[in-house]
Amino acid sequence: MSQESLDPADWNDLRAQGHRMLDDILDYLEHLRERPVWQPIPTEVRHRFHEALPQEPSDLAAVHQQFMADILPYAVGNAHPGFMGWVHGGGAPVGMLAEMLAAGLNANLGGRDQIPVAVERQILEWMRTLFGFPETASGLFVTGTSMANLIAVLVAKTAILGTRVRTEGLAASGQQLRAYASAGAHGCIAQAMDISGLGTDALRIIPVNARFEMDLERLEAALVEDRRAGLTPFFVVGTAGTVDVGAVDSLATLAGICRRHAVWFHVDGAYGALGRLAPDLAPRLDGLEHADSIAFDFHKWGQVPYDAGFILVRNDTLHHQAFASPAAYLRRETRGVAAGSPWPCDYGPDLSRGFRALKTWFTLKVYGARHMGAVISHTCALARYLEQHIVANPALELLAPVSLNIVCFRYRCDRSDLINARIVTALHESGIAVPSTTTLHGRLAIRAAIVNHRTQEEDIDALLKATLALGARFNAMPTSELDS
Ligand SMILES: *Cc1c(COP(=O)(O)O)cnc(C)c1O
User: Is 349 found in the same domain as 419?
Assistant: First the structure.
């Protein structure tokens, strides 16, 4: 073998080292609970990631040792049962093993005639069925819901303006498109408007009601008003599980409004859409089946290791027309490797694409949809458990209704924002629990989003106990000491 090959001279050595690496990461997962959720990163560890480009080889074992010492202990901690910040999935060992297989196969899922693409289409079929979409629906793995929402905006834009917009640009259309989302919608919706060239001013933010759901009367009024003003409403985003509080917009009613006003109905179901897997939650998502497109993630409630987002589009033709473009070097055949058209690259901006479908396929097959649904239900049961303890404790105050798996609350005190923010950073540094914060009605809330399949009542108990202890301690301290 030539000196230039990257394969080992001795496969047995590599095999032994590979087995050690596998054992180490399985040990990590098995004993996760004994670790801090997160720990502050020592300065010398940060410094180690500013070395010069290595010119000479190193031992795989030595590099792995550095991973174990300097990388593994200083991740965000979302695999840990005590992690409740933002909306992060926990990942599962089966998905991890599948990811290793995918990397070994090194499949490029841009297109061509290969079973890895059939695996991705299998996931598409499963999701079509789960969400009640027709057989003609198309879909694609993407990095995450941010990208999936962007794709939805682009498909809807091309659908309303016609494919000419792809060559002539937006200005030539002479139309002023308008999109609509609630005040609880994720920031990536505005970002999608920005990136697509429509501009964030073309997104109208509709206020929410007391349950943090889109006020549908206000939406309808806005649609009528904009149409009268000569603007072109084209895109309405319903959210299934808002990032702040987990509110679910009334999807069935939204679907009717979109039909009446002839606008594209998109659902951002980043984490919430997979609630369809849980029989007790599924009815909350009624109306999802009427969407023109759904963006969601397998890496949140689906527990698939990062990253694994998905875009599902009802009308395959409109999806294809928004992205397909001829290129001599991507010529299609009916036989050989270049067969199998249309290819995934015809449905999105990526040409080279990894095999995200494999870890998702393994996860759904090995655990089964029913079990995944039970995991999702359990996170909501834990949220209700946390809610009950908050409501029962006069030192704490619930700040939003608990709709799914997200609980927003505060420690009751004067200087509330200051002290609650301090509680959260102290919780992080303690390694006991990692909630995040949000602002609701102008007040800072401690926000626990229970997404991880590993989280149990004992983790909720630990969060409560530490919050109460820290709250009492900080409340007794003068402000000058709180800042340090
Ligand atoms: C997480 C989330 C997003 C963004 O998804 P990514 O996978 O992080 O890109 C969008 N919308 C909602 C409601 C989310 O919870």
Answer: no
If asked whether residues 325 and 289 sit together in one domain, one would say: yes
CB of residue 459 inside a 6 A radius of ligand 1: no
- For residue 216, tell me if it sits in a domain: yes
The verdict on residue 86 lying in a domain is: no
347 and 389 together in one domain:
no
Domains identified in the chain, total number:
3
Any ligand 1 atom below 6 A from CB of 99:
no
Does residue 6 form part of some domain?
A: no
- Which residue is it, tokens 């951002």? 268
Q: Is the CB of 360 under 6 A from ligand 1?
A: no
Strand partners, 398: 409
DSSP state of 207: P
Tell me, yes or no, whether 19 and 159 share the same domain: no
Residue 85 has pLDDT above 70, yes or no: yes
Pocket test for ligand 1, best of 142, 268, 310 (most atoms within 8 A of CB): 268
Judgement on whether residues 293 and 389 belong to the same structural domain of the protein: no
Residue 300 maps to which CATH number? 3.40.640.10
Domain membership of residue 293 as a residue range: 101-367
- The torsion region of residue 241 among left (phi > 0), alpha (psi -120 to 50) and beta comes to left
Q: What are the tokens at 233?
A: 């409403």
Which one of 146, 150, 447 would you pick to mutate in the ligand 1 pocket, going by the greatest count of ligand atoms within 8 A of its CB? 146
Residue with tokens 């919780």: 427
CA separation (Å) from 222 to 163, 182, 401?
27, 12, 27
Alpha carbon nearest to ligand 1 atom 14, residue: 270
- Cα–ligand 1 centroid distance for 217 (angstroms): 26
Same domain, 162 and 187: yes
Q: How many CA atoms lie within 13 A of 108 on its CB side?
A: 9
For residue 28, the domain's CATH number is 1.20.1340
Q: Which two tokens stand for residue 439?
A: 């602002």
This prediction has a pTM of: 0.97
Residue 200 in tokens: 């964030």
pLDDT tens string 185-219: 999 999 999 999 999 999 999 999 999 999 999 99
For residue 7, the CA-to-ligand 1 centroid distance in Å is 38
Q: What is the pLDDT of residues 377-425, one digit of tens each?
A: 999 999 999 999 999 999 999 999 999 999 999 999 999 999 999 999 9
CA 361 – CA 368 distance, rounded (Å): 10
Euclidean distance between CA atoms 152 and 62, whole angstroms = 45
Condensed to tens digits (0 to 9), the pLDDT of residues 438-477 reads 999 999 999 999 999 999 999 999 999 999 999 999 999 9
What pLDDT score does 484 carry? Answer: 61
Specify the 3-state DSSP secondary structure of 98: helix
Q: Do residues 276 and 411 share a domain?
A: no
Statement: residue 329 has pLDDT above 90: no
Q: Are residues 40 and 175 in the same domain?
A: no
